[in-house]
């Protein structure tokens, strides 16, 4: 079914939608933590190099596959090569697994946004507030339901009226909020009871200045793997999203230019996420506070930072969580669209039926994720050493196992079976030459699959030397 194909009205709509997908929770709560943990500027330099090489390769490949086949991730691979249907199935399983826990976290963000809007930020900063909230049975489910309904409404409206139109409104707002919080974060200062004063600019230095003291080959390799893993979160590759969005791009669009814009947009926002968070956490919590990640950063550490700002904390907290809400919303929309488009293409469903089915499935699994912090609470240790419950297991399987497998398979298919010329010809369809053509060929055939294989071994706990 080709319903709503080629329906992005222009390249701006596509770029904003794709960038909106890329700018999500992974950028906001994972990027700053990794940058702080991995030597500040050292991580930034490696990340930017990888974004221009490794990330460029994966992003270009998936978008080109989508536009060439005019299919969703579930069906695109088999259209390229009939025997490669299983890779499409795995590529579709990834967003199906991610969506339920993503909307659960989206519900958490909505809860905190409401807390700060109503002026109750001080309560959110108290010890045990976050664990008390997710430990409840009803409220996290209610917040998840509200967030999911908002996402589903956008998907129901379609690619043009829903995804593209909402992206054109939300993304400019998101950028304004990101810039505003970033600038404010650099202006703050705090003096401890012992008289030590820390400033936002000092925190910025801790973020951007490379710390090479005592760096070893093993530590450098660890930073490399961390930066490469972050690219999955940052660019939304290996989730089927870029294939789905690529299938909606017209044949006369300048694909190379759009890909460059998406890369630039995402890298800038990822960097600004660190500018927003690291200086503020450094000022009020010191270097030790900079190593918090995931939910503990977003819902525990930052509320304490906002509370330390006095009256302004509620305002800044509300602006911050509004920004996070928009980022989570655009990413959740893209994840759901990858699933809905797959259902439409594989089972010949119309958009309304496909969206309704995925909404029901997503909510049912998301309820289990919510209950994983109370009624269904358990604790197991994953191969990467993380003590996990339902959400962590789903995140580990989708992000650490299936996504590298999808990308490795994609590189093998394009690099060795169909040959890189397949993607290069698609990018150059309009007559505009593809930049970094030689780099792309080397990356997709050799460098990317090798790095991805090492990342997979590391995620599985098999490779322990890095």
Q: How is this structure best described in words?
A:
It is a multi-pass membrane protein. The chain crosses the membrane at residues 12-29, 41-65, 86-110, 141-159, 171-191, 231-250, 262-285, 311-335, 356-376, 396-418, 439-457. With 466 residues, this protein is mostly helical. The mean pLDDT is 91. The chain is 76% helix and 2% strand. It has one domain. Helix 15 (311-347) crosses helix 16 (351-371). The relative contact order is 0.20. The longest helix is centred in the last third of the chain and has 37 residues, at 311-347. Strand 3 (380-381) and strand 4 (387-388) form a beta hairpin. It is built from 19 helices and 4 strands. The strands form 2 sheets. The chain has a two-stranded antiparallel ribbon with strand order 1-2. It has a two-stranded antiparallel ribbon with strand order 3-4.
The helicity comes to over 70%
Count of helix runs: 19
Derived from helix and strand composition plus strand pairing, the structural class reads mainly alpha
Radius of gyration: 21 Å
The strands making up the biggest β-sheet line up spatially as 1-2
Low-confidence stretches: none
Largest sheet: 2 strands, antiparallel
Could you report the average pLDDT, rounded to the nearest whole number?
Answer: 91
User: Number of domains in the coordinates?
Assistant: 1
Strand tally is 4
What is the 3D shape? globular
End-to-end CA span: 45 Å
Strand content: under 5%
Q: Give me the strand/helix succession.
A: HHHHHHHHHEEHHHHHHHEEHHH
Pfam family, one: SNF
GO cellular component, one term: membrane
Main location: membrane
Keywords: Membrane, Plasmid, Transmembrane, Transmembrane helix, Transport
């Amino acid at each position: 079914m080709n319903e709503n194909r080629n329906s992005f009205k222009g390249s701006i709509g596509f770029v904003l939608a794709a960038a909106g997908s890329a700018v999500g929770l992974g950028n906001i709560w994972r990027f700053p933590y990794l940058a702080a943990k991995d030597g500040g500027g050292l991580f930034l330099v490696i990340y930017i190099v990888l974004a221009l090489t490794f990330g460029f390769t994966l992003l270009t490949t998936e978008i080109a596959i989508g536009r060439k086949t005019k299919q969703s991730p579930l069906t695109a691979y088999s259209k390229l090569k009939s025997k490669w249907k299983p890779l499409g199935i795995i590529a579709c399983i990834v967003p199906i697994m991610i969506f339920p826990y993503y909307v659960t976290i989206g519900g958490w963000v909505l809860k905190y946004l409401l807390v700060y809007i109503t002026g109750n930020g001080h309560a959110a900063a108290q010890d045990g507030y976050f664990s008390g909230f997710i430990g409840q049975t009803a409220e996290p489910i209610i917040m998840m339901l509200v967030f999911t309904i908002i996402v589903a409404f956008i998907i129901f409206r379609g690619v043009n009226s829903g995804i593209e139109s909402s992206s054109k409104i939300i993304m400019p707002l998101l950028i304004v909020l990101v810039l505003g919080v970033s600038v404010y974060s650099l202006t703050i200062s705090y003096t401890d009871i012992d008289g030590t004063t820390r400033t936002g600019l000092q925190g910025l230095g801790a973020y951007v200045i490379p710390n090479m003291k005592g760096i070893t080959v093993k530590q450098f390799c660890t930073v490399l793997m961390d930066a490469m893993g972050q690219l999955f979160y940052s660019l939304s590759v290996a989730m089927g999203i870029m294939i789905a969005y690529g299938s909606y791009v017209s044949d006369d669009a300048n694909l190379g230019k759009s890909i460059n814009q998406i890369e630039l947009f995402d890298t800038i926002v990822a960097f600004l996420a660190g500018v927003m968070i690291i200086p503020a956490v450094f000022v009020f919590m010191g270097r030790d506070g900079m190593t918090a990640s995931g939910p503990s950063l977003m819902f525990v550490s930052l509320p304490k930072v906002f509370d330390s700002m006095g009256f302004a904390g509620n305002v800044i907290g509300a602006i911050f969580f509004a920004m996070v809400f928009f980022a989570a919303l655009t990413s959740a929309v893209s994840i759901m669209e990858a699933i809905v488009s797959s259902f439409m293409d594989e089972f010949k469903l119309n958009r309304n039926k496909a969206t309704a089915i995925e909404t029901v499935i997503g909510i049912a699994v998301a309820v289990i994720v919510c209950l994983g912090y109370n009624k269904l609470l358990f604790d197991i240790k994953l191969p990467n050493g993380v003590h996990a419950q339902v959400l962590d297991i789903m995140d580990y399987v989708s992000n650490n196992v299936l996504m590298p497998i999808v990308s490795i398979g994609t590189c093998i298919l394009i690099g060795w079976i169909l040959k890189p010329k397949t993607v290069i010809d698609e990018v150059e369809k309009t007559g505009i030459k593809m930049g970094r053509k030689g780099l792309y060929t080397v990356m997709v055939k050799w460098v990317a699959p090798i790095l991805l294989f090492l990342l997979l071994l590391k995620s599985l706990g098999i490779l322990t030397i890095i």
